[in-house]
Each structure stands twice: as C-alpha cells, then as structure tokens.
Protein 1
Amino acid sequence: MDLELTEELRLLQEAARELAEDVLKPAAARADREERLPAEHWRRLAEMGFFGLLIPEEHGGTALGNDALSIVLMEVNRACASTGVTLSVQGSLIPGPLVKHGTEEQKRRYLPRIASGEIVCAYALTEPEHGSDAGAIETTATRKGDRYLLNGRKAWITNGASAGLLLVFATTDRSLGSKGITAFLVERSGSKGLSAGKREKKLGIRGSETVELALEDVEVPAENVLGQPGQGYKLALETLDGGRIGIAAQAAGILAACLEDSLRYARERKQFGKPIAELQAIQWKLSNMAVDLEAARHLVLRAAWLRDAGRPHTKEASIAKLFASEAANRAATQAVQIHGGAGYCKDFPVERYYRDAKITEIYEGTSEIQRIVIARQILEP
Ligand code: CAA
C-alpha cells in the first residue's frame, strides 16, 4: 500500500493480505451463493489475532488499535465483504465498549474468549420499528431484585443466531427517552427466552448472518449491565463512532477490489482493435476510482488514528464512512460498466462487489444519518 505505515502495521497488512488472497478470496463466491461462511475461516481470523486488535494483552489481545483493525479490515473486505462485517462486529463493536466501560470482572470473563473466537459476538441495538431513530428503542429491561428481565425484538442483527455474547440495548425507564437506555451483556447459554427468528435473504454480504431476535423475559444478572444504567445510548453512539470507521474500511476494501479487477479486465479486454484500457472513456473511470480509493484510505486511517489517540473523532468517523461508502458504490457501478455484459453476470466478482457495496451506505448509520452527524458537528458553536 502507498500509505506510510509503521513496520509493525506493514507486517500486519502483509499477513492480512496473504490470508485474504489465499483463503478468503477463493471462497467468497461460494459464501455468497450458499449464504454462509466456512467455520474454518473464523478459526483462521482468530489465530491471526484479528479479533483481539482492540483488546489489551492481559486479556488475550494485542491492543494494536483501530488503525491496525482498519488495515486488516481493508484487506479482508477486498477479498470477502461477508467475512469483513463479521470481523468488524467481533473485533470492534463488542470489545470496544467492553474495554472502555467494562468492570474488571466483565473484562476477565469475556475479553479472552472474544479474542480467541471462542464466543461469537453480536451488537443488538436496532429494532423492527427503530433503525435510524435508535434513541426510541422499545425493548424493556425491568429490574427484579439482582436481575433484569428483558423483553422486546431486535432486527438485522449481524451474527445474531450464532452469538454467544450479545450487547443488547434496552430501556430501563421509558419516561426518560434515550436517557433511560441501558446496555446489557447477554450470554446466550442459559438465557431462556432469547430466540433467533428468520435469517434475512439479503442483496449483498450474503455470507454473513443477519437475523431478527426475540427476547421474552430474558434474565440478565444486574452485574451484566455495561457502563452505567441510563448511559446506554451514549455508549451505543460512541461505539458506533468506532464501528463506522470499520465500515468505512470495509467500503475502501470493496473499492480496492473494484479498481484491481477493473484494471485487470481493461488491460485484457480488446475492442476496436486494442485493450479497452487505452480508451480514454475507460481511463477516466479508472482514474476516478484511484482518486476515491486514495482519499477513502486516508480518511479511514485519519479517523482511526484520532480514535486511538483519544481525540474527538465523531465527525471524522462519519466523514470517512460517508465518503468511503458512496465512493465504493460509485466504483462498483463503474466496475460493472467497464466489464460490460460480463460484469452483469456471476462469472466475474464485480457483480458481487456491486451488491456488497450497497450495505455500506445503510448499516451503522445511513448516509443521511452521517450527514446529520457531520452537520451537527460543524454547526456546533
Ligand atoms: N459519542 C458519545 N456521545 C454521543 C455521541 C457520540 N458519538 N453522539 C451523541 N452523543 C450524546 C449526546 O451528547 C447526547 O448526550 P446529552 O443528552 O447528555 O447531551 C446524547 O448522546 C444523545 O445525542 P443526540 O441528541 O445527538 O441523539 P439523537 O437521538 O438526536 O440521535 C442520531 C442522533 C445521529 C440520529 C443517532 O440516533 C444515530 O446515529 N442513529 C443511527 C443509528 C445507527 O447507526 N444504527 C446502527 C445500528 S448497528 C449496525 O448497523 C451494526 C451492523 O449491522 C453491523
């Protein structure tokens, strides 16, 4: 890669690229077709330490940081976006807030098992009636002695059926609006009343698991509250600042794949007696992709660096996610266009990139939500 990385990050990038090229990429079309990821890949990601990049050494990780995770995510998503999103949830959305807000007991109990891949994690905020307006969630948590009873429904939950540990957001006091939301660490084992519904049939990232969850009197010990009661919404949004950098990295990875495949095809495909790469109309498309890729990578790493440095980065995370996701969709459209009829068929991976790219403009905050976040930040006095 053309960005200046430290030796440590460069080696990590090389390792991620090797795994992506040798293991993930050859299996990506099948994962898309069969709507499941090979279990073996989970084990490989864990072995490489990719689930522990935000987890301190004493809890089984390497704590290399969000820049390291972003670099890995760019490589993984270049090969397989379905694997990319599962890694993003496991590597960031759960360990991130656990490291920051967890009690020593919670960290000791969960972090090593997250890093090793022993437990799969899921982030359960969205509900059927509350997606963008996450502060209005209706799942309730009612205190009964030393436990809470959780009731409600969650929707579009990545890893939701496989998860052994779920970060569930529920309201402990509806009269307080979003200030009544609390975050809970819910273990699946022993949790009666927690069930996964239908697995969504998706346009893209089809290898990843997306389900609805029903919670009926799910008992959660009070010691499994993450952070303070009533602080769950802030915890959710602060976590999404990190998650959005991950989705921006996912988009940059898809974009890189679009450019790479388009360059190859444009050099090989001949029309009018010469490779189409010699046609200016095609060159302009390739140049636009290259510019977008360079910008997206820089925005991702800048936001990651700010987050690692403990500096404000809400705006930068949203800018990175907004730009990279829209750029990935532009690139995917042009990659299909460059491939022509061939790009419209499943014989070439660009057809999959086109479908996979779309979700990056939707999850972890739609492009419209990112614009709201950015506007609020720049309008702040
Ligand atoms: N970090 C920390 N605190 C934050 C914050 C942040 N980034 N953003 C806001 N807050 C705080 C505010 O300061 C405020 O606190 P006070 O009340 O003490 O002042 C509180 O949180 C509420 O903030 P807002 O009033 O700005 O919140 P809002 O209700 O107006 O909503 C929103 C803002 C931007 C629309 C927000 O709801 C949002 O981002 N919605 C999108 C939801 C989303 O991204 N969902 C993704 C689901 S997970 C997923 O997609 C995972 C997956 O599939 C892989």
Protein 2
Amino acid sequence: MQIEEISTIVTCPGRNFVTAKITCSDGTTGIGDATLNGREMAVVAYLDEHVRPALLGRDPRRSEEIWHYLYRGAYWRRGPVTMSAISAIDTALWDIKAKLADLPLYELLGGRSRDAVMVYGHANGETIEDTLAEVGRYIELGYKAIRAQTGVPDMDSTYGVSGDKLYYEPADAAIPTENVWSTTRYLDHIPKLFEAIREQYGWEHHLLHDVHHRLTPIETARLGKSLETYRMFWLEDATPAENQEAFRLIRQHTTTPLAVGEIFNTIWDCKDLISEQLIDYIRASVTHAGGITHLRRIADLAGLYQIRTGCHGATDNSPVCMGAALHFDLWVPNFGIQEYMRHIPETDAVFPHAYTFKDGYLHPGDVPGHGVDIDETLAAIHPYKPMSLPINRLEDGTLWHW
Ligand code: CS2
Ligand code: MG
C-alpha cells in the first residue's frame, strides 16, 4: 500500500481553513487540519513543496516513522509552521489507519475512557450585563462549563469580545487591526465579572477565563488571587509561556488553576511547566502540536504530574481538528475539558462530521476514522481571503501581546 497523492485544500467558508488530504493506492483517503490562523499559506507551501514530494510512494501505515521522518528530516525542528504541517499529515494517517481497521479512531488509541466529552462554550459581551445574559444563554444550551470574557470600561476593544455572540473570529483584516490595552483597567474590572456571574447563576457551572498572554507573572498572581473566591475552573494564557520558569512565581501566590499551551507545538514547549507542576491543564491541540502521535506523548507526560488536557478548539481549528480531538478526548485518561467554539453553518457544510452536541457534552460518533470529511466541490466556491490576527499596543503605543 502506498501514498498516491497528497493535496492541500484551502477554503474560506466564513474563515480560512487548510486541509491536507492523503489518497492511498487502494483508494482510502484521510484528512488532517493544517490551519494556522493568519499564516495559512506558509503551511500550504510547506506541505506542497517539502512534504508531498518526500512522502509519495511511502507506506501510509508507517505513521510513527513518517512523523520522525518529517520532524527529524526537516533539520530545522519545531515551530508552528513545521508542526502544523506534520500535525495535518499525522492526523490524516491516523484517519486512514482507523478506516483500514474499520473502527472509530478512539478504538485504536485504547478505547473510551468516558461516555462523552465535556466541552466549554464562549460567553462574551461588551459589558458585564451583556456577558451575564450570554452566560445565561449557554446555561440554557446545556453547557456545564462556560468561558466568560467582557469588555472593559474606557477600552475600545479587548480579547474575546465580539459582536457575533456564538461565533468569535479574531482574524478580522488582511493587515493586522491595532488594538489598545490597559492592564490596570482590566485587572480592576475582571473580578467584578466573576462576582456577578456567581451572584446571578450560583456555583453549579465551571467558569473559565482567557487572559490571552497579556499579564506579567506578578500581575497574573494578583488576578489569580482576586479570582480564588469565585472558584475558577482555569485562568488561561495569563502570561507569555516561553519563559516556563515564570510560572513558579505565580504558583507561589495563587491556587487558581492555570491553563496554557494552545500555541505550543511540541512537548519541549511545556516539559518544565509539566514536570514542575506549574500548570493544571495543557491546551496543546491536534492541529498545532504534532497531531495525534505527539499529542499523546504530551498528554502522557502531563498525566505523570496530575495535569489534565484542555485542548484548544477555537473557530480557526477546523471541524477536522474538532473531530480528531474528540476521539483523542474520549480516550485520553487524564482528560480535563475540550474547548468548543461552534463553527458557522457555512463551515459545517464544507466539513460534514459525525460529532454531536448534547447537554454540554460532545461525542465524536462511531464511524470509521475521525468522522469528519471535506466536500471539495463546496470548498472550491470559497476562495482564500488573506486575513491576519490583530496586534495589541499599550496606551503609550508600546507593542504588547495580543
Ligand atoms: C483563544 C483563541 O480560544 C482561545 O482560547 O485563545 O481563540 C485564539 O485567539 C485563536 O485561536 C487565535 O487564532
Ligand atoms: Mg486561548
């Protein structure tokens, strides 16, 4: 059996997605998500120019060897572009492997460790009142866990707040939109949001919040302490995590659980965070952290230190990522939670899938493979649209973290 063709399908049904499709000599196909928000075409070039020629003719069942062939063979290891390309190929090969076995992907990983996958939705609003209403809507939709984000008085924008409530798409212009940020105003305001949520909705639901890399470690410690009263499920990406040691300082000051890792792309990005138990949830995703093959390794390391998974699942992770992630989530012993930002109907039409939502849980379905397909005819009517993520500045113009 051989890899006969590898194609990259770029489509923009509401937002840009890149899908790697592998076709085998027996006709079996598999797909993987290769979307890197704002840098999509870099991954397309990597796949078309450097991966495809090297893999044609190889045995698709040798997925572990192919992973190392692409990782070590690149010489220039790691990084989001390389690892998104490897992730997409790996996911497609696991999809093929499961189809050849005529089994849902989770069975090949070790079978179910739970009945379904608890997910969290995104409630956001310009004001605390608006966000409270959105939290209520997610509770009505059956969510057990809700991420809450709100605008900050006297700030024109902040992360995670959008006009469109159910779908949040931050890549909003070809040339980066410029946002302005004030840590002081933000730190004064956010505790009021969670006080209001607990006051109005009580303690039955898990509450999450994403700081999106914008604080220093000591500011994170301050925010973590100020939120302890509201029993957060996690505080996410509070400070840039390249400096893994920074989390030692945070840990000295607060018991608020910490989640990090959606922008990580290998185990090396989080080895110290995990082995020193500096975080509580690892957010690495199937799409950006080396596919199923590598994400299993990250999860197994995390499991040694009682750290749980909380895979990234934003709108720029395609339904292919969501489908593969749900098979991973159903299996992984140290599962924590799965992010679930719903895709718009236009996107779902291009990516028919077997996963379903019910009462705050997702289930991947039981069709062979990861259960997601791509309608290439529909995909073709949505041409790529250059879009970038915003940049962020402090009020004095200093470039900050978006
Ligand atoms: C966010 C993402 O969902 C999240 O936790 O951090 O929406 C992130 O902003 C986007 O994936 C960036 O493309
Ligand atoms: Mg995030």
